[in-house]
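How it folds:
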Amino acid sequence: MKKVLLLDIENQSKKLRELTILLEQYHQVILVYATSNLVIALDDLMIFSQAIQEQRLLVIKMPKAGANSADFGLTFIAGRLSATLEQGSCVDVMSNDKEMSYAVELLSQVGIQSIQLKQLIESPKNPEPILVTQEKIVNQQESIPLVTQDITRVLEILVKNKPKKQKSLKKSLVVWCQIDKGKANIMIQTLQRMSCIMIKEDKIKYNEQTIQSVLLQSCKKIDISPIADEMTMAYISVRPHLMRVKQYCNYLEKIKNNKPTKQSGLENSLKSVLKLEQDAPVKNMINLLKKHKIIQIDGQKIIYQVDSIMQWASIK
């Protein structure tokens, strides 16, 4: 999946030199400005020139200078990207303007992963990049807390499907959880700390007893509340599969008494509401709806959990 950065260079206090780091982290950087007096170092000139020729760096000057002109440019470009990129692609927005959060949220709603970065990346002494997002510094090696449902979903799959090597597990996590490789690495580290897996010479050994124990505890927690406390708009907006769950719950909450009663009707409804064309994504969505206790399937009959639907629809 393609990873793109939209950069408003005008409200960044850092130097243009740090663009070299961004070009290493993203497939393409799109720089937008209206007026700028930034100085380009001669050492970086050749790097930027080559990046422009390879279309890894696009520099766009707004035709008119004015308040928020660069933001309008970024929003326009974000809209075009959302129509051309595949679902699951990443479009990050680097701008200190709060209004850009609306563009980020809209991108997430159409299945494009997006976050707003509040300041440029600083040149690190070690090779590991540091991202600064929402005024909180997060090192890629630092563990990001994962919600119980993420772990539960992975462990449920690992009970039946056990990749033998770390590389295979990483690729599987990217597909299963619709996350990038960085978050997949973090999840692997989390599974190791939980003693669910042990890795030696790239080979994985699974601790069945620990996996079953974690699953048992997770089931107890999930039964208490269909939606975990972490299920906020900020949390699900960067997870396209959860955004689709919310989108469909919004639809179910509106139609009230006209919900599909059979599985075939549900499949057609999902295709129509979520613009899904293939059967595989539809089946994945049905599994997600069951997993999050939004529906139950009894034979061909669909049973809806009204409380869960209302909770998902009420997430703001």
